[in-house]
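REQUEST FORM: STRUCTURE PREDICTION
Request ID: SP-0412
Submitted by: Lab K.M.
Chain count: 1
Length (residues): 131
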Amino acid sequence: MTDDETKPAVPFELIGGEPGVRALVERFYDLMELEPAYAVLRGVHAPDLVSARDKLFWFLCGWLGGPQHFVERFGHPRLRARHMPFKIGIQERDQWLACMDQAMGDVELEPGLRQQLQKSFFQTADWMRNQ
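STATUS: Completed
RESULT:
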């Protein structure tokens, strides 16, 4: 619950606000660059990940119930349309999910929140497939 005990805390708050979301995003992209298991996923990204890091951070802040940084900058996320130019098949989906799960573990998200986010991430990632 939040301080006023009238509504449950949103995932954004449970992660630790912007610093927590930023830590998750940074770990996610660090793992993508470091781990050979995510090579296919890394291959669909630009050589420089600075923009991708910022965009995922801005998007996740709003998606998790915090500030709508992405919408303020770019309008509606239109995730599927924005990702249509990139091959996203089962392998890419599964590597994205595995990388994000590893990142959530590395930043020590609370197990219940991690499980909730795993389900939500799977639904979104599966919907993004275009191959």
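NOTES: The chain has eight helices and no strands.
Reviewed by: T.R.
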